[in-house]
Amino acid sequence: MPQFAYKARALDGTTTQGSISAPSRREAINELRQRSLFPITLKDTQGPTVPLLELIKPQGVSAEVLATNLNQMADLLENGVALLETLDVLAKESTHPRLGKIFGEVRTAVSEGIALEEALSKYPQVFPDVAVSIIRAGAEGGFLEGALRRVAEYLERQAELKGRITSAMAYPIFLIVAGVLVTIFLMLFIVPRFQQLFDRLVESGAGLPLITEVLLSTRLIMINQGWLILIGCVGIFFAVRHFLSTAWGRQLVDRWVLHLPIMGDIVRQSAVSRFCRILGTLLANGVPLLRSLEISSKSIGNKLLEQAIIASAQNVSAGETLSKPLTSSGLIPPATMAMIRIAEESNSLEQVLLKIADTSDKKIQRRLDILVRMIEPIMLLIIAAAVLFILLGLLLPVYDMSNAIG
What we know:
By secondary structure, this protein is mainly α. The chain has three domains: 3-44; 61-157, Receptor-associated Protein (Up-down Bundle); 171-406, Up-down Bundle (Receptor-associated Protein), CATH 1.20.81.30. Helix content is 75%, strand content 6%. It has 18 helices and three strands. It has helices at residues 25-34, 52-56, 63-78, 83-93, 97-111, 116-120, 129-141, 144-190, 195-204, 210-224, 226-245, 247-258, 263-284, 289-299, 303-317, 323-329, 334-346, 349-405; strands at 3-10, 15-21, 37-44. The longest helix is centred in the C-terminal third of the chain and has 57 residues, at 349-405.
């Protein structure tokens, strides 16, 4: 049974503290009240026991699974099922074990008087700020079911865009991995079969072609210093990771990526689309503009645009327009800024932002198609060049020997 450490005030005004065993937090509070103690603080001293297998298994919840459960939650509420019973059903029927456990914990928190959105906000890795803010607005405005469906729709759209990007890059990544594996196989297992021939050529004084010497030197480096190269790659990976974890490092990389041909345009459009969709979704669900800007600035994945949005929030709090700092940043296309500026004047910002997001997503898909079409032949040429280099290094000595014999 859980143990709760408490600090409470007695009827005579004195403060006492200790521990109490109870099945739940609510039962612990009731037990203290029966003792004429009014709790000031109450903490679970044991905390949840997490099985070892749960620590090993991935703890993430996909957007598709979360969207399905939120739609199911909206269905139950619309059909008159009470909130506690709805959460109980989701906890028992969810196909995702971690999500079912979370719904069970949320159900316990709501039964103890905690608001639904506050209970969900304790799991930021599962329920992002966007979802919690929309649900809070829905609960306060009396349209919780509609808010849940809008969160589900937002998650589905984000998952769809992510899936498109992943599927578009799958084949180029496969080509890269296949090319590296083929090159390593040829260098480690095929080249040694010609070593005796190379030795005879050297002993005869004929020597080896330059390309063959480069090939053999490369192979020796791979064998003798491969572990150093591997350690160096791992070190570079962690150094880059640390560099990206710093604010100035992330800002520098974001600025550099935006200037890349084609890829920079994709990253820019993706950040603009995410910003417009998040901001439009929040505004359409009654979340205040300043809070919406704060949430969207943290969710777009680009430090430069994040700074421009923060500056826009400061403008709005000072009674000025949203579009001025965004325009001066130069990160958002002029056509998009013109639409945002007109939407501000016509008081239709949320609808226009969602339309901009839809249009940007289509542009991203077209740019991705172009990028993939360019990457595929480039990767094939690189793989062919590597294989040709190895084959020439192996066959040129054979050709020289046949000419010498002839």
